[in-house]
Amino acid sequence: MEKEKEFYERLESKGVSRRDFMKYCTFLTGTMGLSSSFIPKVAEVFASPGQRPPVIWLHFGECTGCSEALLRSMYPWIDELVMDILSIEYHETIMAASGHQAEENLHKAVEKYKGRFICVVEGSIPTKYNGAYGKIGGKTFLEIAQDVCPKAAAVICMGSCAAFGGIPAAAPNPGGYKGVSDALGIKTLNLPGCPNNPVNLIGTVVNYLLMGKLPAVDELNRPLFAYGHTIHDKCPRRSHFENEEFVLEFGSEEAKLGYCLYKMGCKGPETYNNCPTVKYQGGLSWPIQAGHPCIGCSEPDFWDKMTPFYEES
């Protein structure tokens, strides 16, 4: 009870009422596909955290955009996520240690929590020339991944680079960049997006803490709660049309006038993600709402298969 009281006091100091927080928990519960009866339990995960699961966050071939997105998460904010909910043992972007001390922290954490830690991977892995296109502490990305990932209880790929190779794997791909699963031959839980929405990682973590397991996934190992529908399925612009079947391609004066972005190359009908419902920047907006067509960034090989981005598929 004391921890819960302190939690709500911290929320209040940041200008967030208990009512606003419960609205967020309702939204997150719905996003995860759980019934309303889970709302108090989801709130309890944040307000009264129990044992914090250890997390080792690895960076490979990426731009750190997914970490930057996570740093801007809300309810929990990044400080609460790091200090109260998760025990992040290694994360190059936010850790105080550097150099040999940072590498020592990594190796100690892997051994201490072997078989129990969650390994979050951000970025793809170069595989050509024995992985020579990327190194940390004298070891290649490939060597680090081969050492750390198999020792984890679960491997979560944060962003399209880690999940499917992303932009580094785009043709001609001289470094042989691959997603973690392809590079190592292991099963991973994939949270693609460029960047991935932090709500989907939070939902995955909450599912793990509530159920003791990772969420159900599709054939590409993406959580169904986040990637169970296409962008087009949930896009608010589609409700503007009377006939929903191929009207974007074969009819509708509104489409000709440009209300729908399909004619501008929107890849929404081919892209599975929950962007229309969770949005970005604390639920403020998302690309299509801002007038930009979806580029299909959560699909495998999107940089090659979805281009040219501004032409109809």
Automatic annotation (TrEMBL):
Alphabetical keyword list: 3Fe-4S, 4Fe-4S, Iron, Iron-sulfur, Metal-binding, Oxidoreductase, Periplasm, Signal
Higher taxonomy: Bacteria, Pseudomonadati, Thermodesulfobacteriota, Desulfobacteria, Desulfobacterales
GO CC entries: [Ni-Fe] hydrogenase complex; ferredoxin hydrogenase complex; membrane; periplasmic space
Cofactor(s) the protein needs: [3Fe-4S] cluster; [4Fe-4S] cluster
Iron as UniProt keyword: yes
Pfam families from the UniProt entry: NiFe_hyd_SSU_C, Oxidored_q6
Residues the entry annotates as binding [4Fe-4S] cluster 1: 63, 66, 161, 194
Record protein name field: Periplasmic [Ni/Fe] hydrogenase, large subunit
Compartments, record wording: Periplasm
Residues holding [4Fe-4S] cluster 2: 232, 235, 260, 266
All residue ranges annotated as the Cytochrome-c3 hydrogenase C-terminal domain in the record: 227-310
UniProt KW Signal keyword: yes
Organism: Desulfonema limicola
Family: Belongs to the [NiFe]/[NiFeSe] hydrogenase small subunit family.
Assembly and interaction partners: Heterodimer of a large and a small subunit.
Family matches, as Gene3D superfamilies: Cytochrome-c3 hydrogenase, C-terminal domain (4.10.480.10), NADH:ubiquinone oxidoreductase-like, 20kDa subunit (3.40.50.700)
